[in-house]
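One thing: could you explain this record?
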Amino acid sequence: MTRFFVRLRLAASVAVLLSVTSVHADDNLPAGATVLDTFVLKTGGKEAYGRIRNCMKKLRTTSPDGEVGVTIYQAEPYFKLVESKTPRGLARAGTNGEVAWRDGFMGTRVLSDERRDQEMLEAFFHMPLKWREVFAKVQCTEIVELKGTRCYKLLITPKFGLPQTRYFAVDTGLQKATERTVTTPLGKIVARIFMEDYRPVDGILYPHRMVQEVKGQQNSVITVDSIVHNLDIPPDKFALPEDVKELLKSR
């Protein structure tokens, strides 16, 4: 059960990479900020991103444990709710902008410290448009070959949460992979995800297929079935569940 939960957790937070071959590092590399700003431009531009206030994504995660349906609701600035229908029952995770929590068949938990920070970072709705609000440092270190594609390698230090590495195609500017350390019930795990099959939704390009790896082995495939923007989401959608409120009171 714990192994299943770890796979589910990684799929919901969505993060990373396979084999990477270093090509070169030199002083002519673009600034990390330039690479991230180019990604915004290539995937739709500031105006398209600026029109989005909230979204709902429906995903399917296929792993050795079977298929899991996931629905993700997000809204500005830090609201997020993930609902996963697993063979063992419903699992939920979310944040109301202050408290990060999880409940369902694995029990109820309120996250704190590093794990809360990581959830808040992943819930930041205005990524990638306003990345400067949550990233303290972005450095482009070298060009690497990733599955036959030349990519800029970016080392990112968030203002909160764990450092991460991202890879962007030199020719298209699109993000090809992410690599970061994820805190799970089993400890810290390096997760890698390849982003594929970019398609437009309301003028913004999103990857619709992601291949996730843990410890060099394919762990799951995440397929995006739909993305809907600017929904009429009820105000209480991101409210804390009653069991989470009770847990907070008992602290």
